[in-house]
Predict the structure.
Amino acid sequence: MSLAADPSGAYQAFYRRSIDDPEGFWAEQAQLIDWQQPFTQVVDTSRPPFAKWFVGGQTNLCHNAVDRHAAAHPDRAALIWVSTEVDQTRQWSFAELQREVEAMAAILRAQGIGQGDRVLIYCPMVPEAVFGMLACARLGAIHSVVFGGFASHSLAGRIDDCAPKLILSCDAGSRAGKVQAYQPLLEEALRLCAHQVPKLLWIDRGLVPIEWRTDRDLDYARERERVAGERVPCVWLESNAVSYTLYTSGTTGRPKGVQRDVGGYAVALAASMKHIFDGRPGETYFSTSDIGWVVGHSYIVYGPLIAGMATLMVEGLPTRPDPGIWWRLVEQYKVSVMFSAPTAVRVLRKADPKYLHEADLSSLRALFLAGEPLDEPTARWIRDELGRPVIDNYWQTETGWPILTLARGVAPMQERLGSPGVPMYGYRCVLVDPETGAELQEPGQKGVLAIDHPLPPGCLQTVWGDDERFVKTYWSSIPGPQRYSTFDVALRDADGYTFILGRSDDVINVAGHRLGTREIEESISSHPGVAEVAVVGRADELKGQVAVAFVVPKDSAALEGEGAQVLQQGVMHCVQSQLGAVARPAQVITVAALPKTRSGKLLRRAIQAICESREPGDLSTIEDPAALMALAERLRQTG
Ligand code: ATP
Ligand code: MG
């Protein structure tokens, strides 16, 4: 079958093999990494919904990310760190990175940290955080990176959940030139949590003074001198040992502690670097994410390094010192693959496009975007300005690597605006009716995107410390055969492209019509006066639910008065003409900003709660509470 998404049919064949012969397929992919001892079974599916990959195999993430490249290409660039906040640039070759990681591992080992022990990393975007992650991987310790922007309450919950023996932290981060001290937040978190953390290891950047507690605190620079020259070998781990835990973004409620393995993750990342990102050894990969998120884990730290690429890590904002900074970095470090998020592109879109054209971007082959819906206007803008493929990719903290995208490394594939692409190899994706569990086969049918057991390598093993939550949350929500629910609603078109329409709880039912809030948002964002939009459903006596749209105007003059009225009417008209009258929002409200999570996702559930006069629920991951308060105020004003 020839599909527009896969004109040669080559990807289809690749995908089919991964589904029909998973053992053969993944055994082959497993050759992309080093094994100290070969596995005896490719996958153990005897206890669904759990799965074990590469059973009996012994390997190590740090060996695959660092040591093997340090042995083969010691002088090749491995980690490039640029801080536009403190005006510093540093670079490590693979051999130098190995020395740093061994030093960090020696420090941890001296504190009695070994296999299975937890280390929490609460740091800004500093290279020592990467050393810390890799040092844990080296020792078989389990890291739990907590996004450095989280405050005490969120941090305390994560400390209690993973019960670390040691916390690696920093005197301060810096954002937009403002120093943000970490110690007060961490001390407050330690007061709030029940778990006693024996040791804190501080990286002192000299930004703010640290108050030392001698029985508990260690100074990284001092400890590093103490262990100078010590060698720390990689601990060989069974493939299914735990490598790390990481929390989901908390967009829909209490964050879930995703637990990942070692071997499956290493293989999945190595395969994705080859087949999806087409990143080649010796080149530079630039992900603009943060190490506190899954994209940072997979595609700042482990993925590029496993592939023998240099990874560019940036502390700083996309607009400082000016909106040309990322493009200059692409030029300077000859970045071949770049990975960012739609939210960042929307920020850059507000700036002058001249910045894009001032840099020589000839090294860049493609830009990947993920994390939230990529609306068509944003996608078209960046694609046209860059003149390169802009590839949406859809996945979750849970899966660790893309579920839907285009496998450029396997076959030439044509991107389609608005769709992330097609199911990636290994993912047995199905669309199901959430009420009946029936599989939806016809193009255009909307259903919940589900994945059949077993999930491919690299996906979560379970929820940390809570197998029951794993089974109940992910595998029990769809009637019929046990399937993993992504909780996202999607449809497939006749050309084979899958479109994500929104979260399953974001589907609203207006007078019997099921509408994805994403579809309405997509329509509204095509209005030239709209910078950003959020649509939520509000309970309505007559219609069951109605759509309410919150719109950030491009021009702040349209926030109030006549300008706002014109925009509101334009938006209504846009939706009515594109989607029909049922989808037309009952209300269009102009706001200056939308509430988002720290990872830049719209907090729709909080907006919806406020629309329905309910408590907004867990706000521990909110970026700017003021935006939510202002939105509530606007809502009150408009009645
Ligand atoms: P929580 O699970 O705690 O509510 P979260 O789902 O936002 O938070 P993440 O794992 O960071 O946590 O995000 C994954 C979700 O982000 C996906 O399930 C999907 O809803 C959305 N998403 C990610 N990438 C895309 C994309 N390319 N297009 C549309 N949606 C996306
Ligand atoms: Mg989620």
User: Anything to note?
Assistant: The chain is about 30% helix and 25% strand. The first strand starts at residue 41 and ends at 44. The domain at 506-638 is CATH 3.30.300.30 (GMP Synthetase; Chain A, domain 3).
